[in-house]
């Protein structure tokens, strides 16, 4: 690990409510508002619930693993730094560039989606104008200050949370016939092949959908580097977010499955490009609420902008951290007086803009770029679980006691092992049909991010002659900057 480059440090400006809402908002989006209907259709009500509960538990283990490391060493690079520090510098290099690339591409995907959503109201208006406007807004928010980013994410996430509460209330009233005109009850849970449809393969297919729905929870690790008090805010955010995710997703699926039978073509056609067939929209309409589609369209627009905003923040901090550690040009480690890594932000912005331009002028290039970032989130989760497993083993092997850690992950080593296994299952199960038919094009499009990470890993390993760090040589000490900050705070109090 290289020394600090002296370019300045990001400022700790995120409050506890910011961290909680960023983590919560990161995993509540179109995965819940739109594609959850497809999960119910594929596996039935029972199968969807089993898949989301299992994936939710795995994400909880993942977040507690990340939380243990983040409270010990809160850095903006988060899990890329941990991979380098606790496993192998080559893995940190691969994880960092992999994650930065993923979010830079995802920002472009999200701003393209903004244009699709806006066509609901203004179908004849040039779509690229809305995308550029969204990209400009996101740049402005991120370049002001970390507090501006935190406040923006707080309020946009709050809109999503309020929408879910209203949806659940309306849904329950509809189920009991108080709204919508007639009693529905739970008969759709046993309709035809329900509650379990397509057996184990159906549940496994929903694992993939649920996994993508929960992407973004790892943002809590990146925000730890700029949280005012990560030892308190990170554990609090982890526990709050877990229970909220489980309640929101599970209750929402129960309501949707009770009101809309799994055989409905509305669920079959759920896609991020058509808000009119969002299961949330359908439930509101069946409850007799006028303008449901417009309301949900506004919420989904907020959700997409929020996702792009978080993506710009995450990728910028990852590039800044890699520059700080020597894995990227050191110029990207420079920080403004406001504590913003402006050059890292602009570099990410350029990549997002170029990717967006390919969606207009070169659809095939755009498709390959998106495909290359498809499994990045699951690869990052795998890296987090592996890093934590080695961190804890190294911590104990070197004679440390668990009481020295400010936060303890749940069920070690079961937690990270379950996370590792499920990540492998989800990554391998993305498109089993492509292997069955031996469709090389589909396989390449679906799994492209896997060989890219392997190439990054071995390229760095060969060039720099790195090795997997022996457990007794792993540096498990907290970061010096953070230790100094704790001492200053203690002396003040």
UniProtKB/TrEMBL annotation:
Transmembrane segments: 21-40, 46-63, 100-122, 128-149, 161-184, 196-214, 241-262, 287-308, 340-360, 366-389, 410-432, 438-458
A Pfam match: AA_permease
Coiled coil: none
Cellular compartments annotated: Membrane
Domain Amino acid permease/ SLC12A: 18-467
GO MF annotations in UniProt: amino acid transmembrane transporter activity
PROSITE patterns given in the database record: AMINO_ACID_PERMEASE_1
Bilayer topology: Multi-pass membrane protein
GO cellular component: membrane
The keyword Phosphoprotein appears for this protein: no
Record keywords, A-Z: Amino-acid transport, Membrane, Transmembrane, Transmembrane helix, Transport
Entry keyword Membrane: yes
Highest taxon in the source lineage: Bacteria
Name under which the protein is recorded: Lysine-specific permease
Species this protein is from: Fructilactobacillus fructivorans
